[in-house]
Amino acid sequence: MATAKDRAQAKAGSGLNDDIGEQKRLEMYRTQVVIREAEQRAYDLFLQNLVKGTSHLSLGQEAVAAGFAGAMKQGDLSFCTYRGHAHTLARGVPVEKVLGELMQRDNGLMRGKGGSMHLTSVDHGVMGSYAIIGAHLPIACGAAWRAQYKGAKDVSVCFFGDGTTNIGAFHEALNFAAVWKLPVIFVCENNLYMEYTPIGDVTAVPQPAADRASAYGLERILIDGNDADVVYRTAQAAFEKARAGEGPSLIECLTYRYSGHSRADPAKYRPEGELDRWKLRDPIKIYRERLLQFGVAEKIITDIDAQVRKIVDDATEACKAAPPPPLDIITTDVYADGGWAWRN
Predict the structure, then answer these.
(1) Is 4-343 a domain of CATH 3.40.50.970?
(2) Where exactly are the structural domains of the chain?
(3) Residue range 152-193, pLDDT digits in tens
């Protein structure tokens, strides 16, 4: 294991900025590995017919979830899309709970009733994954408005894909948040494709989120979404702004999904070689090399890899052994009568 002197010399020699610290970096590395291993396992389980329906994976996009989660404080809220496994895991939800939900088992996050596209854990600040494009942006504004009204310091973070920027709710939510200076951060995970269509083919500006920020009086923020350190630092600044009462931020993170839009998509529309080029900037590869640059012993890194693989393996076996949810809960948490008791 590297000594403190070794690490100091490595940092000095690399010329890298060590404002983040080893503990936080190891935490963000572990988060990225958890997401990668759990998502890859979800892919494998789907091929074994153990994950029903479809699923939308974030393989290749792990740095966005890890960087933001690393900057969040307890009480901050996450609002996700149907591609929400990564953000759910990043907030600390156990792998078994996520895989169990995907496999429709009683040990799942919502006892198997929500499935891949509706992961929610209020205890972890995960306020839902939303299957309707753009639907969660106004909801995130509502949560932020509540915090502002009550004088609370929690911040709402709303993650969405590049395709959402052409939805009316995107513009309505941005305008509302800017006018009221709400403590909300809008995060566009631009993976270049809105389902099967290149975002550049159907959008009037080159950067679908960043180039529209000025229309709402916001700073243009475009970052490398494959570098967790860059994401973390950018997130920190946005959180400080929001907690200080200075309003929302709109951040566009450039990244890339390794798989298709969903498990039903072979992604044959992508140009030849594009995936390989993006894999050269794999977020986990980047971060592993970063840790080594800062003098973290390789054994520490490989131990994290091994520990995470065991967690995922154990979670997989627990989910395979778990029963399906009992039929007597099929109508619970589904209907509301709409009467005064429900509204109040």
Answers:
(1) yes
(2) 4-343
(3) 999 999 999 999 999 999 999 999 999 999 999 999 999 999
